[in-house]
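Database export, one record per block. Field names are fixed; values are copied verbatim from the stored entry.
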Amino acid sequence: MVERIIKAGKHDWIWYLDFDTLITNTNMSLTNVINKSLANSTMPDTIDFLVTNDCNGLNDGSFIARSSPRSIKLLDAVRATHDREKDQSGKAMSDQDSMDVFFKSDSPLAQHAMHIPQWTNNAFPEEIGCYDAYKKKWERGMFVVHFAGAWAHVTGEDPTGQLMRKYEGDII
């Protein structure tokens, strides 16, 4: 899906976002997240992916990809990692695990990914206390709140729906 949007050539950056996420501050823009993140790089033109971690490592429920041929090569390499693992073990890796393994590899393409703080575009609420090294949970005023794995942290028939309803009143 991301590759198809890149090939369409209509956007500079593409934000992949899981369905279980609320944009909670509409006064903020994705452009600001990108610009602030790239300002922390000594070579911003070489960064094609902005990704975040959680307590388990990479969380690809919210990532930002530059619309470039190099991003397509990177996605192809992630798919190759997936396929290679499946061929070797007979079990398929998840897309998230494939991306994580690839970004930890010594491939020159992996150097085009930049890890940014989880709270910038993938913050988890207190109910899902699985934070990156910054240990910063979602707070009112942050850009987004992601309910990743709500089913494992919240009881009830519709854990994601419960959290969506709880936090919708905090949208700015």
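Remark 1: Helices lie at 2-8, 30-38, 69-89, 95-103, 118-121, 150-153, 159-167.
Remark 2: The longest strand covers residues 57-66.
End of record.
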